[in-house]
Amino acid sequence: MIGEANAGDDPADGWFPESVASGYDAPGGANAPEVVTPAVDVLEDLADGPVLEFAVGTGRIAVPLAARGVPVSGIELSRAMTRRLAGKPGGDAVEVTIGDMTKTRVPGRFSLVYLVFNTIGNVTTQDGQVDVFRNAAAHLRPGGLFLVEVGLPGLRRLPPGQDVVPFAMAPGADGGGYVGFDQYDVVTQEFTSNHITVSPEGKGRFHRIPFRYAWPAEMDLMARIAGMRLKHRWADWDRSSFTAESTKHVSIWEVGR
Ligand SMILES: C[S@@+](CC[C@H](N)C(=O)[O-])C[C@H]1O[C@@H](n2cnc3c(N)ncnc32)[C@H](O)[C@@H]1O
């Protein structure tokens, strides 16, 4: 992160310390019912017994899924995010293990492991992402499913010689504003999401988060390394077809029986 360190943030919480967790559940955006409900509908439909969310966060998806009667466990790196989950109505239904989804194991075999909201990209090496697939497979019972929701990198919007793709430009009426852009390294497949917020008084904050992108075909190979095969690839939670114009995918791999 570039900018002032926030007092009270624990470095062990990674990119989601208290200063981020405290605003994560703000209404609207990814927390809007029209975003959350379609995801929970699909996950409830796929669940055939206990499920495990990698990087469960504040329980944005896990808590409403558990409220439908699906037994949900989670793995999460950030204690700050986990505290938010535990403090929510219904949060006590989701048992969270603090740890790294590349290697942390929880007891039990699951019908479904899921990893949503672009979070596979928070693991910034290919080896680490393969370990996520392996760890998912290790938690699945025979025939179990691993689901990933992730945006596609904006490579088709990168002309030669340019490495930046803007995704937000929102000047405020009061003189402040917000600018967001991704910066890609097409050699390493690493990229950063950059968020610049300027207050009406002209005070700015530059927040920069590292990611690694993988094209869907690379994820299919990761899945095969982990003993899984592609079962579905949708453009979104509405199960629409994945096409050349898709900007994200919801992919589901099945572990061997
Ligand atoms: C964008 S949030 C998504 C949270 C939740 N899944 C949701 O959909 O709202 C990303 C979460 O992934 C967690 N995270 C990032 N890397 C992780 C890792 N290697 N192992 C476990 N959790 C991780 C972060 O702490 C953060 O809570």
Automatic annotation (TrEMBL):
Protein name, per record: SAM-dependent methyltransferase
Natural source organism: Amycolatopsis umgeniensis
Chain intervals for the UniProt region annotation (Disordered): 1-20
Segments forming domain Methyltransferase: 51-144
Keyword Transferase found: yes
GO terms (BP aspect): methylation
InterPro entries xrefs: Methyltransf_25, SAM-dependent_MTases_sf
Alphabetical UniProt keywords: Methyltransferase, Transferase
GO molecular function: methyltransferase activity
